[in-house]
Specification:
- Belongs to the AB hydrolase superfamily. AB hydrolase 2 family.
- The chain is of the alpha/beta class.
- The chain has a single domain, classed as Alpha/Beta hydrolase fold, catalytic domain (Rossmann fold).
- 36% of the residues lie in helices and 20% in strands.
- The protein has helices at 36-40, 75-78, 82-98, 112-123, 146-152, 169-182, 199-219, and strands spanning 15-17, 25-29, 51-55, 59-60, 68-69, 105-110, 130-134, 154-161, 183-190.
- α3 packs across α4.
- The radius of gyration is 16 Å and the shape is globular.
Length: 220
């Protein structure tokens, strides 16, 4: 049985663009050792007509690492999804409190933040309309709503580099098997890219998000 863990998002630290305009919402989840200011720098590369919220991870990264973390980095080795799930539940509680006017919600995460984005989608498939997974992975283990997600086929974009040696190969392999079974998967492997984001990748992400916005407008 998973250990029950509770963590919270600091609402006062969230960075917003176009808040309160009733627009579809894109939530940014940064990587390990970073903070809410990092991915917020991507706003100029994102589509128009979307509100953006960049969240701070709930935990401090252990000294001497700067920034914050969504869960202890040791989870990459332990393969225990409990703390990843706790971070996802913190995102869902933040959505409950702050996003009542959003007609559609997508998540964009990098590395650790991407694993939390996928886990959030798994915890509440009806809430999350699209996910961008940049250099991240799907956490091993089954969750109760996975069968519903398999039926729903939420669009997921997965971008990663050929020279990314941060995510263990077995987790990359697990994700490569898990995502096509549970989502409408698109994406690209970028030649020579390390554990980072490139301009080509951002262009692909923008096109993916534009399709999400088109679908959100059609449903609205």
């Amino acid at each position: 049985m998973e250990e029950q863990v509770t963590v919270q998002i600091d609402r006062d630290a969230v960075h917003w663009a176009r808040r309160g305009e009733g627009l579809p919402l894109l939530v940014l989840l940064h990587g390990y050792g970073s903070d809410e200011k990092d991915l917020f720098a991507l706003v100029p590369f994102l589509p128009e007509g979307v509100a953006v919220a960049s969240l701070p991870a709930p935990l401090g990264a252990p000294w001497p690492m700067p920034g914050r973390s969504w869960y202890p980095i040791q989870e990459l080795e332990r393969r225990d999804p409990a703390t990843v799930t706790a971070a996802a539940d913190a995102v869902l509680r933040w959505l409950d409190a702050e996003t009542a006017d959003a007609p559609s919600i997508a998540l964009l995460g990098f590395s650790q933040g991407a694993s939390v984005a996928i886990q959030t989608m798994r915890r509440d498939p009806e809430r999350i309309s699209a996910v961008v997974n940049l250099s991240g992975y799907a956490s091993p283990g089954d969750l109760p709503n996975d069968p519903g997600l398999r039926e729903r086929r939420t669009p997921v974009f997965w971008g990663r580099g050929t020279n990314d040696d941060v995510i263990p190969p077995e987790l990359v392999e697990h994700t490569a098997q898990w995502l096509p079974e549970h989502a409408e998967l698109s994406g690209r492997v970028y030649q020579g890219l390390t554990h980072s984001v490139s301009e080509d990748e951002l262009a692909d992400v923008r096109r993916f998000l534009e399709r999400w916005l088109e679908d959100a407008q059609a449903e609205g």
